[in-house]
Specification:
Largest sheet of chain B: 4 strands, antiparallel
Number of helices of chain A: 27
Oligomer: heterotrimer
Radius of gyration of chain A: 29 Å
Distance between the termini of chain A: 46 Å
Shape of chain B: globular
Strand order of the largest sheet of chain A: 4-1-5-6-7
Number of strands of chain A: 13
CATH class of one domain in chain A: Alpha Beta
Largest interface: A-C, 26 and 23 residues
Distance between the termini of chain B: 34 Å
Number of helices of chain B: 6
Largest sheet of chain A: 5 strands, parallel
Structural class of chain B: alpha+beta
Chains: A alpha/beta, B alpha+beta, C alpha+beta
Helix content of chain A: 55-70%
Family (chain B): Belongs to the TRAPP small subunits family. BET3 subfamily.
CATH topology of one domain in chain A: Rossmann fold
CATH architecture of one domain in chain A: 3-Layer(aba) Sandwich
Low-confidence stretches of chain B: none
InterPro entries (chain B): Bet3, NO_sig/Golgi_transp_ligand-bd, TRAPP_component
Low-confidence stretches of chain A: 1-49, 129-142, 171-179, 373-397, 625-658, 667-713
Subcellular location (chain B): Endoplasmic reticulum; Golgi apparatus, cis-Golgi network
Shape of chain A: globular
Pfam family, one (chain A): TRAPPC-Trs85
CATH architecture of chain B: 2-Layer Sandwich
Strand content of chain A: 5-15%
InterPro entries (chain A): TRAPP_III_complex_Trs85
Chain lengths: ~725, ~190, ~140
């Protein structure tokens, strides 16, 4: 898949100096879509300490992580047309547009009241067995959740960060604040949530619908559609995936070559055969170039799994070396046609289909359970299953759980209830989802289906937090802590499903953080726990460490003294993160962390803390004259007081530091030779390269207060 | 009066005729006086010593009456050795509940030392770490003034000063007291 | 914490988050020689951990009537035990194994000595303490 390269031209020269630099547009990858959902009110009271747009960003990431998946299954002739347009296949073309369905989408919740979504999304995925995405379908075991995505996410973030470092180094410092704040963490989270593996214990990655497409070039259109239906159903999908998903039939009309009247007639025929879930998509088959009148850049997918994005970046890098432009454009008419198709599909087919199913499962299964005994009475599931499902299981055991595949058959009540809960969740009916997750947890527990139990525990907490219910200390201690602990234990110890554990923790952490107050502290606690998982390599660890600091920082405390706050903890975690960033060579990130934490330690009399901070400042190239000045002053004071017996040995301090500073400056000298002086807004200082005669130090700094006009630039 | 009976007398007065006060309060009060002087006089420890001595002198002038009333001593001291014994066994016992050792008499019997094994005034004290106090400040110098003032009221002009102090890291705390002269039928000087 | 096991970092923290007294020592139990075995990077971490635990202590101090708050915070495998004096001076011990009772005895002794330090007319609240007296208490209990 191709993405236009729209880096500002002045950064290109800098790119050239570093061979490893990935060529892509950082901005579009990092900026998350703002969203205003009807659920904004949920967080209104609780997240007051966080700026609105940040709350929206985080919510948006979480909402968009759990969206209906739609498989794309097309005939060869469709992809031929797409390839003529310069794109690999239909899936790649429409996927980005599914991530933001145009306009407002309305769904009804279980109470019958309608909920409008401004930012509804669906996730496209390739049909089973159809080429590139095939790997995604043969999960099925718990190992799938220990996916190779984790190291890839790390690697990808590493590239993004390196790129951002270069932007900053090449004086595009205006964006520093944006890049070093939480943007990268959100990106990390999004990438982590982009590639849900297909597993038996949850249905988020199971298709809700399948888009089946043929083109106007097809000679036996109806037969091909039937064929596609058949192959789609016969594909090697794990047995636990329900194949009763919606089929949506699309006829791709080639505007440039084919007769619209013929296509319209064919379309009418399709509707007669396959019902209302049909769409006529009119696309042009010709290649679109930037100079064309109605050209628009192809939208980029923000939810590419890390593996795909990495592959894409690498191939783009190769292309760059060959000097080939990789920018992709499509006709504006195509774009609006695709948007319309997606909107119609979602609004008129997918959502009603989901609503219908939710209602019917709710009636059949849940209300029957409730009618018999109610959740509070906690009837044995065995009793229920013996009446409800004996005929279907046909098995000697009373349980529907299949131990060999670690799954339930999709027609069992357990599997259907999980699906009901997941679908309710995808339609953001948190209350219903919470009730159902809460109910099935005990069923799974009775069957000792531990993976399913963990999944239900995870989603119970997440949906509970999303309902916006006030989080009482009792709720924290009895529900959130207990379930999180149990879910993590199951994921990690029983199944070694580190990905699942990490997802579970990080999503919960974000929601708790939004709740603020002492929930934010709980968020920090669980974020620290996720570090203990010890699965994510360094970049992820640094990001999460920084996030721990952010979580603590949310808890502000009362009064002028910030009593009861977690300022010191926040500062410590930011410093720890800064240390990791330096080790990773991500100095801008490190400087950001140092900036956030330093005020807490200014003038501290803890000798090792002060020395450590001085070292961090040096290592990260952090230059803040005010800070250094105050540190130096207190250092002198220390020396004066040092006459008596001091337990902590201070003797070896200053010499080392200065020596290292000199060495660093020497390195800098080499690296920056010939560069122009530059003003770094972030550091409020000017970096001046070596002077012509060469005897000046490689780097001089001065504050804005001084007049730098006098200096020999 | 024998040395042993003086010891008994001191014990008895301490037990029956003395109102007690919390030792820490005394220690802290005295410590605050010294610390405040050091601060006010800006670390001029010679001047601090002088001021402490002066305060002690003024206390001594008054304290002698209380001492005589409570100890009810009928007998005049026969010689300076007796005086030393009374100071140690009755005086210090009664007011500070300590009995400093008498030592280092010189040949003419006019000079002796009081060795303080314990010194309630100096409990908990560590001299300031400024490199000067250790050499210049006599922390308990008020005691010198007290003895000087008290003896003057009973017709003895003495010179009293510390020559060593545990607080300075010496092995002992030693105060040297020298009889200058007996004051015959003279009125005491005015309060300084 | 391998290599630095059974080493202690003890700090008295004043009312302005300022350390008054710091000591590192190893265990004297099981034939220990009392020499701290902290790796270099642990030494600043000890200070960070102690400093950051003040957040928790500020919460706990109103919830408990006791001066000895036991283990108040944990960072990885490192515990922080706290004894809070009436004057809001915190005695903190950073250690790697929970053992409330010996630490309580240690703190009680140290507190006693701290009170004496405070009686020194030349010592002022929040002033750094240069005396070595607290090591004796460590030898007795830790």
């Amino acid at each position: 898949m191709a993405v236009p390269l729209d880096l500002p031209p002045r950064s290109l020269s800098a790119m050239g100096t570093s061979k490893a630099s990935p060529m892509y547009n950082l901005r579009s990858s990092v900026v998350s879509t703002g969203s205003t959902t009807s659920l904004a009110s949920l967080f209104a009271g609780t997240g007051a300490s966080l700026p609105r747009d940040i709350v929206d960003d985080i919510k948006s990431v979480i909402h968009h992580a759990f969206v209906p998946h739609i498989a794309v299954h097309v005939s060869q002739d469709v992809n031929e047309i797409i390839r003529e347009k310069g794109l690999p296949d239909l899936y790649q073309l429409i996927r980005p547009y599914g991530e933001k369905v145009q306009g407002r989408i309305t769904a009804r919740d279980s109470q019958g009241s309608s909920m409008p979504f401004e930012d509804f999304a669906v996730r496209g995925r390739t049909a089973p067995g159809a080429g590139t995405g095939a790997g995604q379908w043969d999960g099925g075991s718990a190992e799938a959740m220990n996916s190779e995505e984790l190291p890839l996410v790390d690697e990808l973030l590493d590239l993004h960060l390196s790129h951002a470092e270069e932007l900053i180094e090449t004086s595009l410092a205006a964006e520093t604040e944006h890049h070093t704040g939480q943007a990268f963490y959100l990106l990390y989270l999004r990438k982590l949530l982009s590639g849900f593996p297909v597993t038996p214990h949850e249905t988020f990655a199971h298709p809700v619908a399948c888009l089946i497409a043929i083109s106007s070039r097809n000679l036996a259109p109806i037969d091909t559609l039937r064929q596609l239906y058949k192959t789609g159903a016969e594909m090697d999908i794990p047995g636990y995936v329900n194949k009763e998903y919606l089929r949506y039939y699309v006829l791709v009309h080639d505007e440039d070559n084919d007769d619209i009247q013929k296509s319209t007639a064919l379309f009418e025929q399709m509707k007669r055969h396959f019902g209302l879930h049909c769409h006529l998509l009119r696309l042009r088959s010709s290649l679109c170039i930037v100079s064309d009148e109605d050209s628009v850049p192809l939208a980029k997918s923000e939810w590419l799994p890390a593996s795909e994005e990495l592959a894409e970046l690498r191939s783009r890098q190769d292309d760059e070396i060959e000097g080939e432009s990789t920018s992709r454009f499509i006709h504006g008419s195509d774009e609006s046609a695709i948007k319309t198709m997606i909107r119609e599909m979602v609004a008129q087919s997918v959502i009603p289909f989901m609503e219908r199913n939710i209602a019917s499962w709710n009636d059949q299964i849940l209300s029957r359970r409730k009618g018999l005994g109610g959740r509070m009475l906690s009837f044995s599931r065995r009793f229920l299953s013996s009446t409800a499902t004996r005929s279907t299981t046909n098995s000697a055991t009373a349980s529907n759980f299949d131990l060999t595949t670690n799954s339930y058959d999709p027609i069992t009540p357990e599997a259907q209830m999980r699906k009901l809960a997941d679908w309710a969740f995808m339609l953001r009916d948190w209350k219903l989802a919470y009730d159902v997750y809460n109910t099935i947890r005990s069923d799974f527990n009775n069957d000792k289906a531990w993976l399913h139990v963990a999944g239900a525990q995870e989603m119970t907490i997440i949906s509970l937090l999303l309902t916006g219910q006030a989080i009482t200390p009792k709720l924290r201690a009895d529900t959130i802590d207990v379930y999180l602990d149990a879910a993590c234990y199951s994921y990690v110890t029983r199944f070694r499903a580190f990905y699942a554990a990490l997802r579970c923790l990080l999503v919960t952490v974000e929601l708790l953080r939004l709740a603020g107050g002492s929930s934010a502290e709980l968020a920090a606690k669980w974020a620290i726990r996720s570090l203990d998982l010890n699965v994510q390599p360094t970049v992820g660890k640094a990001l999460i460490s920084q996030r721990v600091g952010d979580c603590y920082a949310v808890r502000q405390g009362a009064g002028s003294g910030g009593w009861g706050g977690r300022r010191r903890k926040a500062a410590m975690w930011h410093i720890l993160a800064a240390e990791m960033w330096i080790r990773l060579g991500k100095f801008a990130q490190a400087r950001h962390c140092i900036d956030v934490a330093t005020p807490r330690y200014s003038g501290t009399e803890f000798v090792f803390i002060r020395r450590f901070l001085e070292q961090l400042n040096l290592d990260s190239g952090h230059v803040d004259l005010l800070d250094l000045g105050s540190l130096k002053l207190s250092g002198e004071k220390e020396a004066q007081n040092g006459g008596g017996e001091s337990l902590v040995d201070l003797a070896d301090g200053d010499g080392d530091v200065q020596q290292q500073q000199r060495e660093r400056e020497k390195e800098r000298e080499k690296g920056e030779d010939g560069e122009k002086p530059r003003f770094d807004r972030k550091r409020r200082s000017i970096l001046i390269p070596q002077t012509v005669n060469g005897d000046a130090p490689g780097m001089m700094t001065m504050t804005m207060d001084e007049s730098f006009d006098d200096r020999p630039l | 009066m024998s040395s042993a009976s003086r010891a008994r007398l001191g014990e008895e007065v301490w037990k029956t005729r003395t109102d007690k006060i919390n030792a820490e309060l005394v220690t802290l009060t005295y410590g605050s006086v010294v610390a405040q002087l050091c601060k006010d006089l800006d670390g001029d420890y010679a001047e601090v010593n002088k001021q402490l001595d002066k305060m002690g002198y003024n206390i001594g002038l008054r304290l002698i009456e209380d001492f005589l009333a409570k100890s009810n001593m009928q007998q005049k001291c026969a010689n300076f050795r007796d005086t030393a014994d009374v100071i140690s066994k009755v005086g210090f016992k009664m007011f500070l509940n300590i009995t400093p050792t008498i030592a280092n008499w010189n040949s003419d019997g006019k000079q002796f030392s009081l060795l303080f094994d314990e010194n309630p005034l100096a409990d908990f004290v560590e001299l300031p770490d400024d490199g000067k106090a250790q050499a210049e400040l006599w922390y308990s110098n008020m005691l010198c003034g007290v003895i000087r003032g008290a003896l003057e009221m009973v017709q003895m002009q003495v010179d009293a000063h510390f020559v060593s102090d545990l607080l300075r890291g010496h092995d002992t705390t030693e105060m040297k007291i020298t009889l200058v002269r007996y004051i015959d039928d003279e009125l005491p000087q005015d309060d300084e | 914490m391998a290599g630095s096991s059974t080493s202690y970092y003890f700090v008295i923290i004043g009312t302005k988050d300022n350390p008054l007294y710091e000591a590192e020592f190893g265990t004297f139990k099981q034939g220990g020689d009392g020499v701290p075995k902290f790796r270099e990077e642990q030494r600043h971490m000890n200070q960070f951990i102690a400093h950051s635990s003040l957040d928790c202590i500020e919460d706990l101090q109103w919830a408990s009537k006791e001066m000895y708050l036991k283990a108040v915070d944990k960072f990885n495998n490192t515990w922080v035990s706290c004894f809070l004096t009436g004057g809001n001076i915190k005695l903190l011990l950073v250690h790697d194994a929970r053992s409330d009772e010996p630490i309580r005895q240690f703190f009680t002794d140290v507190y006693d000595m701290y009170c004496k330090t405070l009686m020194n007319p030349f010592y002022e609240v929040n002033m750094a303490i240069r005396s070595q007296i607290f090591k004796a208490a460590a030898k007795k209990y830790l």
